[in-house]
Task: structure prediction
Amino acid sequence: MLSGRRLDILDPSPLDVELPDIAHGLARVARWNGQTFGDYPFSVAQHSVLVLELFRAANPDATPVAQLQALLHDAPEYVMGDIISPFKAAMGGNYKDVENRLLSAIYLRFSLPASMPAALAKLVKKADREAAFFEAIHLAGFEDSEARKFFGAPSLPAFDVDAFDRLIRPWPTREAHDRFVAAFTEISV
Result:
């Protein structure tokens, strides 16, 4: 890692996890394998901020712990990359096991529970699927009906999400990095 940490991906230690490494990596990993409209790829860092905002809009009383876990839900991708869910399923359990161990180390590094309670995981997954829906129709060329088939209908219209137009327009790498860190810092204070 650029911080100087040496993360063992198969046996990750929370001591080797650093926020700057996560933000740096996620800001450079493209969602949709880069197959999106815009001058910049839509990064996993930006997706994470979008998921956080959708989660907050649907759960205005969410605790800071829940918000951090929502923001960090895809954090393992800073070293593993973004692999689409159908491919993850085809690869089998070992991939998911490695991803879950890494996510647990990340959560522990920031004094969060090692895993999300099932009820919270369901709410974060809902926000994640809604983000994918909006990304699909705004960035990846999906028709509304096609996106609904794959991701379901969003519970909130885009205009009900604060600054949605700014959240869905791809950010340059530095902005994605900085906004991810700012979201983390805002919750952590």
The chain has a mean pLDDT of 93. Residues 118-138 form the longest helix (21 residues). The chain has ten helices and no strands. The chain has one domain: 17-188.
